[in-house]
Design brief:
heterotrimer, A alpha+beta (350), B mainly alpha (342), C alpha+beta (354), A: 350 residues, alpha+beta, 3 domains, C: 354 residues, Rossmann fold, 2 domains, 6-stranded mixed sheet, 5-stranded antiparallel sheet
Amino acid sequence: MSLVTKLATARRTPGRWHWTDIAAYAYLALGVVLMFGPVLWLAMSSFKTQAGLLEFPPSLLPMSQKEVVVTGHPQPLPLFTVTMPDGSTRVLAQVRRIGIQAQMVDPANPAETIRVAIDKRVPVREFKLATENYTEPLERFAFTRFLWNSVFVTVVATIITLIINSMAAYALSIYEFRGKNTVMLMVIGTLMIPITIILVPVYLVVTELGLVNSLWAVILPGAATPTGVFLLRQYMLTLPRDLIEAARMDKASEWQIYWRIVMPLAMPALAVLAIFSVMWRWNEFLWPLAVLTKTESYTLQIGLNAFQGELQTQWHYLLAMTVVTLLPVALVFVFLQRFITTGIANTGMK
Amino acid sequence: MTGPTPTAPRRDDGAGASDLIAAPLALLSRLIDWPMRAIQRVIGERRMAYVFLLPNLAFFGLFVFVPLIINVVFSVTGGAALFPSQRPYVGAGQYAYLFDCGSFLDPNSCREDHFWRGVSNTARFTLFQVTAMVLFSLVTAVVLNMRIRARGFFRAVYFFPVLLSPVVVALTWKWILQRDGLLNAGITSLGGERILFLVDPSWAMFWIVFVSIWAHMGFYTLILLAGLQAIPADLYEAAEMDATPRWRTFWRITLPLLWPNMIVVIVLALIKGVQTFDEVFVLTGGGPGTATLMVVHYIYETAFSNQVQNFGLAAAASVVLGVVLFALTLAQLAASSRKGAA
Amino acid sequence: MAQLELSGVRKSFGATHVLHGIDLAVADGEFVVFVGPSGCGKSTLLRVIAGLEGVTGGSIAIDGSDVTGLPASERGLAMVFQSYALYPHMSVYKNMAFALENMGFKRDEIDQRVRRAAGMLRLTDYLERKPKALSGGQRQRVAIGRAIVRDPKIFLFDEPLSNLDAELRVATRKELAGLHAELGGTMIYVTHDQVEAMTLADRIVVLQAGRIEQIGTPLDLYNRPDNLFVAGFIGSPRMNLLPGTVARQGIVRLGEGGHEIACETGALTAGATVTLGVRPEHLALSETTGLPLAVELVERLGGESYLYGSSPGLPQITLKLDGQSGHQRGDTVFLALPSAQLHLFDETGRAIRS
């Protein structure tokens, strides 16, 4: 306990406590509960059984009723703690329930049947993770397919994004050529055009290309991102020009200069763009929703949305699949948090 | 003449990662290099820039510029056909239909009442959301900028929902807000009555604002925090030497110097707010009724929902939305150029 | 190895004219140094030769074939950059092998060449290091090695020593001289440091404001500067340049006192305005006669001393003396100007020679 108080009272510079310090820590504590709480609750709920989810008020941890196998009964029987007429308590397994009476047996002595009023028994519960919430939808529904689609879209789109945008950024940062300013203006101009306002015509283009319901319809339209060109160009402008000239003196072709000199040196900027691209693509919703109408081409996000529409009551699967969907992003965040936040602070994009 | 530059350039070269995949990439590079060298020999070194631009421009053209033009074409044609050549010209008909209103303040008096319902909802949503967003992200940024322990951890706490997908965000909260959810459990345990949060129109609006702030606040906090950290510490030290009270330091030093970042936050939040769709779509589906129907949701439904498929009307609404966004973007550019001057 | 010929090379950046018609022939195996103050166009001239900049006019020929329109990658020259421009993501070995790979050499040929150059430059132990892990002098040598392995037609150096500290600069300078003797390649070297120019060059090209002021061997430039600019630029400390007039054939009058000095005046007539140049090391002291000089500052460096002083109507005069001078500020000394070591320039700055 003293460690906690020590941590809580230690400030960066020792000094008198101002009321604002206390208010600040209170605010931060509230923040932790409010920001982490919902996701934690989601994760814990995803391990509850269907019956466990229907309980009200809900239990904090995933609990389920303990069951035992009793000789003479083919099915495992649920265990209850029963208050006997004499006031003592016993742990009994329930065979069946008839009205307000329950037929119970002692697992140790299965021959004797005991009748108990149902309000005299309390279920025996144990902590149990309902992992079938995860395994069953992946087996019974198309979630494996959705997962694969999402991974495919994310990986392929990110590779294409990195290559074509770095090529454009290279052209715009290293060369002087006629029309350069026009191209730069177009890049800046398209920064302001979100997919939301060209949804319909992009759909037409994709239809014309015969790509509706193909994953390529999700991958291609967003591949040329002005944000990416901009970010990479700014970085490439900081590379020393001498290196490029040295490479020319070394008889490198322009492609080799791009591929063997500029790309390796632009790795930090490429990494930032790669992380952003992965996030954008993994989380993308509106455009795939518009262009993917067949279940087998759904991404995880679209599948999840459809799943919640179809199976209102199957929260146990839905929650588990939600956790599966957020897991990659959470992992990326845990490992690259500092990288991402500084990237955002520097570029003002997300 | 180049001035003397500090010895060799120092930067992170990331070669460790590239070594792992070097072999296949080198082969690929050689395969591409051969035709590229041939092209370079024909068109010359400097014109290679066009070759490097080509793929990107092709994508831009196909998926941005052409669609922009088609969008306008769609908005002045009617019918249900997807291909512009099969669509009859209707002039400003789609716009006239959209704007056919008894009173613009009352969506029910409009012929296309869903569009105006969307406009009104989006306007209210954006107003509440931006106000609260600026307020909370400012408070959070200021608190995070104080001399606190474990700042990195707390910053991460506020930031992590930014990375979650809208569907995940919406389902997480839907689970908490549902009839038998955690929140109602809390209310009943305190002796209250259950509230059907997503069925009551006012509560539904409150919660979509709340959830969207929950999800995006970290991003804006980060921008403001960067602004706060850019304020030179000696200004605060000078203020401390002058025995300036904290609140006065905040009003007279922090806020004026943070103002450029504040404007960026406000305009970005406005631009995002006007385009709100994903979280609301999953959380409430626009309901109850049309209580949380947003403009983008309206466009999506009009164009892609199976019964209607009215591309012309959707395109017209997109153009209107585009004009609003363009105005907001100009405001942002003006604000950021002022930021550069400051 | 190759010879290089520039004729009428001009270069403009928009309205700014950087080079105004440069004519120059560099012989096979020659070490030529371009020297001049910053902004004189020497680096631009080097980059034009390299092919990194196009020309606005004129032509460039290497071994008799016109390369004016060829890009850098096809001219077959190698360049050592001021910043070294080592590829930071490649090891020393890879840096040196890069050009050879581009030229399509076989793996073992590349290896052999890289190892030979590394041996020559004492880099064998550092081949697997990244440039980041090298000292300034080592990076410098890698940059040179990258040029050597190519066996280029011409080596180009763009102020290669300017990022080294003084001591290392002297050492590397000697190594470069040795390297030229060993390789015998044609080398063109740009510097603003006249000591580098004097010590390394077979011939020096002095540039100013985009024009060649003089081309010649180092001692030529020292002994027989063509004009005021070269006279002032070559030699350290600077040559004293004293305004005067021609009194009569063979006599120049200096300063307010009208001190007369015997000097070759060529075809100049009496009354012509001239500048008399004399190097600080050629001035001698005499006790009673000669140009009077009021000593203002004495610098004693141990082996030599510098006297700075003034004479009425003349700019400050510098005088170099051997040993440790006993003069003090306020002393008056008299200068003897040996006529054999005087340089006379006419009104336009051109040297007067018999």
